[in-house]
C-alpha cells in the first residue's frame, strides 16, 4: 500500500533526544553539525527544526536532560548527604564510574560540551550551569559553617570552586582515556583533600 506523500514520519522524540545527547556528549556543540544530527537521528532538517527548534535549542534541551538523567549524582549527593564533606567525598568517589560508563561517551557534557564554540549564547548557558553547581556546593558549606562543622573563616565559594574544578579534571581525564583504576586513585586523593578542607572544626 502506497504511503501518502507529505505525511509526517512517526518517531520517538525521547529516543531522538537521547541520540542527540550522545552526539553532543561525544563531539561537543561546535563539532556537531545539523547534517550530523539529521543523519544520526534519521530525520530531515525541517523535522529537526519543527521538533527541537534548531541546533542551539536542541543542545540546550540535551544539556538539561543530560544533567538530570546522566549527571544527577552531584545533585543527589548535595541533597542526601548531611555535610559538605560527605557530599564532596561521595561526588569524588562516584565520579570515575560515572564518567567511564560502558556504552556511553566518556567524560561530562556539562564540562566539555561548549569547548571550542564561539557562540556566546551557548557559552553563557553552559557557564550558568557550572556556576549553579558551584553555588549549590557553596550553600552546603555555608550550612556547615552555621552549624559549627566548618571554621567560620572558611570561604564557601572557593571551596565550591575547588570541588567543581577537581570534578571537571576527573571528567577531562576520563575523556582523555585515562583508565578507571587511575581515575579511582585520583578520586581517592581528592577525597583526602576534601576531608582536610571541609573538616576543620570551629
UniProtKB/TrEMBL annotation:
Residues 33-52 bind DNA. Pfam families: TetR_C_13, TetR_N. Residues 10-70 form the HTH tetR-type domain. It comes from the Bacteria. InterPro entries: Homeodomain-like_sf (IPR009057), HTH_TetR (IPR001647), Tet_transcr_reg_TetR-rel_C_sf (IPR036271), TetR_C (IPR011075). One of its GO terms (molecular function) is DNA binding. Keywords: DNA-binding, Transcription, Transcription regulation. This is TetR family transcriptional regulator.
Amino acid at each position: 500500500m502506497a504511503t501518502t506523500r507529505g505525511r509526517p514520519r512517526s518517531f520517538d522524540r525521547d529516543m531522538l533526544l537521547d541520540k542527540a545527547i550522545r552526539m553532543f556528549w561525544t563531539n561537543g556543540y561546535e563539532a556537531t553539525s545539523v547534517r550530523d544530527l539529521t543523519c544520526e537521528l534519521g530525520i530531515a532538517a525541517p523535522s529537526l527544526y519543527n521538533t527541537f527548534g534548531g541546533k542551539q535549542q536542541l543542545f540546550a534541551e540535551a544539556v538539561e536532560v543530560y544533567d538530570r538523567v546522566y549527571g544527577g549524582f552531584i545533585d543527589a549527593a548535595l541533597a542526601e548527604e548531611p555535610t559538605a564533606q560527605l557530599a564532596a567525598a561521595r561526588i569524588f568517589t562516584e565520579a570515575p564510574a560515572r564518567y567511564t560508563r560502558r556504552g556511553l561517551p566518556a567524560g561530562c557534557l556539562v564540562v566539555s560540551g561548549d569547548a571550542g564554540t564561539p557562540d556566546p549564547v551557548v557559552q553563557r548557558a553552559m557557564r550558568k550551569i557550572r556556576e549553579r553547581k558551584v553555588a549549590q556546593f557553596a550553600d552546603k558549606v555555608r550550612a556547615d559553617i552555621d552549624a559549627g562543622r566548618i571554621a567560620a573563616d572558611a570561604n564557601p565559594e572557593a571551596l565550591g570552586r575547588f570541588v567543581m574544578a577537581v570534578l571537571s579534571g576527573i571528567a577531562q581525564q576520563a575523556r582523555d582515556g585515562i583508565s578507571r583504576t587511575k581515575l579511582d586513585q585520583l578520586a581517592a586523593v581528592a577525597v583526602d583533600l576534601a576531608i582536610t578542607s571541609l573538616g576543620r572544626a570551629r
